[in-house]
Amino acid sequence: MAELVREPVLMVGEGWDAYRLLDSGHGRKFEAYGPYRFIRPEPQAMWSPRLESWDAHGEFVPGSDEDGGGRWQYAKSVPDDGWELGWGAEARFTAQCTPFRHLGFFPDMAPVWEWMGAQLADATDAETMNLFGYTGVGTQALSRFGRVTHVDASKKSVAQARANATLAGLDDRPIRWLVEDAMKYTAREVRRGRRYDGIILDPPKFGRGPDGEVWRLEEGLPGLVSDCRQLLDDNSRFLFLTVYAVRMSSLALGGLLEEVFAGLPGTIEHGDLAVEEDALRQPQGERAGRLLPTAIFARWSNPR
């Protein structure tokens, strides 16, 4: 029986050449995406900035409503069609200022990509699925272990994910690119009797499928997780669930997995994703960068 670890886990991304969290505070964050620097809203940065000023290429100014909106304001030139960045030895992708305030990938997911790789170890024939796969950096990270099914309801996002894979030279990797509603597709996979070695899912708070299907996290998540469980067995390796921008504890996600995964072996953990501020400015030998929380998660693992 899968055992729930009650104490929360902190998964921290420390930044890399293509991305760094330079500073944060007063409800904003200051980040470097390769050679370009940006300011974005961050309600959880309730402290004061450490730098006296932020020299940014652009800033996203949010709209007046809580649920979204806003626009980019630029102080310096930024390529309209984006610029190439990378993660690890082979993941390549295009960063770009989007109307949704992010830049085409989620850098706080880097420790998740590393964790998934550790669960799959030296596998070369693993079957994995990336639900709500967006622009596909996680799919690239999984593809060196075997076949990946990449699912997203946005035709534009899937097209960008395929372009990113081409940019990384991964056109020969066994990746299935699907423009599908995640709930409908997962339910069909259950009916087909399919199984996977690992599943990652990053559902939005609210969304619409390609045929107008409406997704609301609190309503749809239990059923989706239940279907994902039916695609896993005693030989599967992991499931990783991340949730952003909700008034919910990671312990709630852990409790959901504890119930649904009761019939499987392994361990269930929950906690926060966070990004560490750039520590290079600190005295040598010290890591004094503050940790900025970005999301909550729950994960099931079954080491072999």
TrEMBL record:
Pfam families: Cons_hypoth95 (PF03602)
Transmembrane segments: none
EC class: transferase
Alphabetized GO MF terms: methyltransferase activity
GO biological process, one term: methylation
Coiled-coil boundaries: none
Xref: InterPro entries: Glyco_hydro_b, SAM-dependent_MTases_sf
Assigned EC number: 2.1.1.-
Alphabetically ordered keywords of this record: Methyltransferase, Transferase
Full protein name: Class I SAM-dependent methyltransferase
Biological source species: Qipengyuania mesophila
